[in-house]
Amino acid sequence: MALTAIEIYKLLPQTNCRECGFPTCLAFAMQLAQKKASLDKCPYVSEDAKAALEGSAAPPINLVTIGVGDKALKIGNETVLFRHEETFHHPCGLAVLVPSDLDEASLKQKATRLSELQFDRVGMIVGVDLIALQHVPGSDFRAAATAVAQASNLPLILISDDPAAMAAAASAVADKRPLLYAATAGNFDEMVKIAKEHGLPLAVRSEGIANIADLAAKATAAGVSEIVLDTAPKTPKDMLLHQTAIRRAALLKKNRQVGHPTIVFAVGDTPAAKALNASVAIAKYAGIVVIDFDDPALVLPLVTARLNIYTDPEKPIQVQPGVYAVGAATEESPVLVTTNFSLTYFTVEGDVSASKIPSWIVVVDTKGTSVLTAWAAEEFTAETITKAVNDYDVAGRVKHRTLIIPGGVAVLSGKLEDLSGWKVLVGPRESAGIPAFLKSLPKLAA
Amino acid sequence: MSFEMPKEKWRGAVNQVKIGATAAEGGTRSSTVTVGGEATLPFLDFEGDTPNRPVIAFEVLDLAPTDWPEPLVEAYGDVFGDPAAWAQKCVEQYEADLICLRLQSAHPDRGDSSPAQCAETVKKVLQAVGVPLIIWGCGDNEKDNNLWPEVSQAAARERCCLGSAVQDNYKTISACAMADGHVVITEAPLDINIQKQVNILVTEMGVKPEDIIMYQVTGALGYGVEYAYTIMERTRLAALGGDKMLSMPMLAIVGSEAWRAKEARLPEEESPQWGRRYDRAILWEAMTAELFLHAGTDILVMWHPEAARLVKESVLSYSAASTESE
Predict the structure, then answer these.
(1) CB contact, 8 Å: A277 with chain B?
(2) Do A353 and B262 touch (CB under 8 A)?
(3) Does residue B279 sit within a domain?
(4) Which one of B287, B306, B310, B326 makes the best mutation probe of the A interface by having the most chain A beta carbons within 10 Å?
(5) How wide is the angle at C-alpha A240 spanned by C-alphas A203 and A187, nearest 5°?
(6) From CA B198, how far away is CA B195, in angstroms rounded?
């Protein structure tokens, strides 16, 4: 629970020494309460006060880091139930199951394939985040973990209920910071010991939701600092209820025992049904979703759903500004100009593509705003369009010198012609009119 | 100590709306569909009533589509251009709960068919199937206003949903719906305030709140799904908070949006890195629908029968009882 300025003030020395840079301790306390200042600015604060303040500032859902380096996955620290209230902060990790009983070459091949299972969404690379290596009894879990870690830099989840196998695999790849899955009522002490020995995050699994808080509290008490929760739901409905219950308890009831990110194994009778349930888990609070397929036809929709749900509602997705070819565009193809708000771009791109007339689209950096908003905010002007046309060397791609601008900003034509030296054609007001417009466009003179 | 399920106490609920009328009710439908009534967030039946499951309406066009990708042509190619046969196929083969008939041919740019021709199409579809109908105009305000009197009259007392009433064009459709006993679909451009405004305008004309379904212009997965998802979530929260002018059930148009995405359209040859087109396209539509279900949609207008089947199964699994007693 966050402290008020007065509560913080009572913990400060109250000497008004000004060394923090603020005129009084109360002024400093007010800044602290708004998280605009940091406590280390006060050289005289007591250890007790520090502990109390840090405790109050602790997030309701702990942050867990799996893996190392730039592929490390951070999950947790979520603050809301609904994305419009703020945003969902740490995109849920997508993990793909790999059984440990494959031979070394197959394991490495599979791990490499998963690292490469990535998709480019206009400048944003999205893909699978984790490899979930599942121990198959009788196979060498340690050797399998080593092989996968060598072949891929994706973070690992080590899955086994057998503490001996887990200890062997964990010690082999501890420097990669894998998530250990899972401590259960049956193997609890041994799994906790392995996690503590290597300082690794640990998943705790209860059968159903009733005992999850107790189990997580026990792991915390035993000294495990990074915990992931699994309630092992048997049906999609149970999954939805468990996820909702845990998020609500952590945020609304300030229940610290369940203040940890969750892991969900997608349930379903077919891969498509599993993918749908995985998309629900993404929208409904899972920290990690584990799937047992790596077919790009099923993974692409999932990574897209994750990208959408975790988009900050106040920061719309932007397209990388530049010039894009739609179809096999040539030096005679038309050149259309639009903004870098992703929906604007995708709509224009879709309509140009539907026209079946290969074209170039120049995307102007309008800070992610749509045509009319960008025009009103003076982000989409004769100046910014001219700059984009020059910066992206549009003249080097086409022989003609004609730009097509959205009908909504027809007023820019004259000034744009003067500034850019290009002829300007006014396109339709609505993107849907683009196919008809392009089809009736005469050949552009060089 | 056992973990307790934290419950919310909601003040309001979504209106319950019945679509379709049987002979006893003055119509000719063999079945009706009731949507809405939820007194909690989607599927959270441990804290509030969820009396009606979300339903799927199959979209039928009165013009033969010329640009539909192969998986859709495989499903409907044999009935293109014959909306009655198309509707029948959806009901008999694909178990549609509802048919959403779109009168595209009336658009001045797409054939400009007359109100009488459209009314005839509506009659034929009503005769061909026993399920309730959603009837959508062509999207051209002036033409739709010419269309509604005759089209609405042709389906009088069948309690169809007529779509759509927008902020600057709602009077004709509302008057026709009241006269002939239909439900009005109010539309807004992904804006919760405009949605509320249209609902107020339409109710001020005399349409009862229980005779309204809401529609926010929908986006597809990868193409704005998050906007529609959040608008619908906020709308459901507003209804649960007691806002009567946002308490109508919601409808989402999924098929036409999802199949516009290039991920659904591009064949394997042009996008080998994306896997089998059929699987990806079906899932693109189904996942768009699934996300809307969990944001609070009551009626999903869909295209591909396999995507619809997947979503219908999902609705059943999320409507089932929990395996744990709370």
Answers:
(1) yes
(2) yes
(3) yes
(4) B287
(5) 25
(6) 5
Residues in chain B within 8 Å Cβ distance of A279 = 287, 290-291
Q: Hey, is the C-beta of B318 within 8 angstroms of any chain A C-beta?
A: yes
Nearest-neighbour CA in chain B from A205: distance (Å): 14
CB contact under 8 A, B324 and A208: yes
Domain count, chain B: 1
The residues in A 375-434 lying below 8 A from B, measured between CB atoms, are none
The single-letter code of the amino acid at A313 is: P
**CATH top-level class of A322-439:** alpha beta
Q: Is residue B261 part of a domain?
A: yes
Instruction: Tell me the domain boundaries of chain A.
Output: 5-57, 63-309, 322-439
Determine whether the interchain pair A297/B280 forms a contact, defined as Cβ–Cβ distance below 8 Å: yes
- Contact call for A272 and B280, based on CB within 8 A: no
Over its C-alpha atoms, chain A yields an Rg (Å, rounded) of 27
Residue B326 within any structural domain of the chain: no
Q: Which residues pair with B23 in a beta bridge?
A: none
pLDDT in tens, chain A (446 residues): 467 788 888 888 899 999 888 999 999 888 887 777 778 888 888 887 777 777 666 788 999 999 999 999 999 999 999 999 999 999 999 999 999 999 999 999 999 999 999 998 767 889 999 999 999 999 999 999 999 999 999 999 999 999 999 999 999 999 999 999 999 999 999 999 999 999 999 999 998 888 999 999 999 999 999 999 999 999 999 999 999 999 999 999 889 999 999 999 999 999 999 999 999 999 999 999 999 999 999 999 999 999 999 999 888 778 889 999 999 999 999 999 999 988 899 889 988 988 889 999 999 999 888 898 899 889 999 999 999 999 999 999 999 999 999 999 999 999 999 999 999 999 998 888 899 999 999 888 76
Look up the ipTM and state it.
Answer: 0.97
B263 touches chain A (CB under 8 A): yes
Which residues in chain A are closer than 8 Å to B222, comparing Cβ atoms? 121, 304, 307-308, 346
d(CA A212, CA A206): 5
Verify whether the Cβ–Cβ distance B221 to A300 is below 8 Å.
Answer: no
* Option in A209, A273, A343 nearest B324 (CB): A209
A244 touches chain B (CB under 8 A): yes
Which positions 176-215 of B are in contact with A (Cβ < 8 Å)? Answer: none
Residue B297 lies in a domain: yes
Q: For residue A361, give the nearest of A372, A369, A353 by alpha carbon.
A: A353
Q: Does B229 touch chain A (CB under 8 A)?
A: yes
| Listed residue (A58, A312, A349) closest to B226, CA to CA | A312
Q: What kind of architecture, by CATH, is found in domain A5-57?
A: Orthogonal Bundle (1.10)
The answer to whether A87 faces chain B, any CB pair under 8 Å, is no
Residue-level length of chain A: 446
Measured CA angle at A410 (ends A122, B194), to 5 deg: 70
List the CATH number of the domain containing B268.
Answer: 3.20.20.20
What pTM did the predictor assign? Answer: 0.89
**What kind of architecture, by CATH, is found in domain A63-309?**
Alpha-Beta Barrel (3.20)
Note whether B286 contacts A272, CB cutoff 8 Å. yes
> Of A393, A389, A394, whose CA–CA distance to A412 is shortest?
A389
Task: Give yes or no for a contact between B55 and B299, defined as CB atoms under 8 angstroms apart.
Answer: yes
Question: Contact, A181 vs A203, CB < 8 A?
Answer: yes
Residue range(s) defining the domain that contains residue B142: 16-321
Q: Is B326 in contact with B50 (CB distance < 8 Å)? A: no
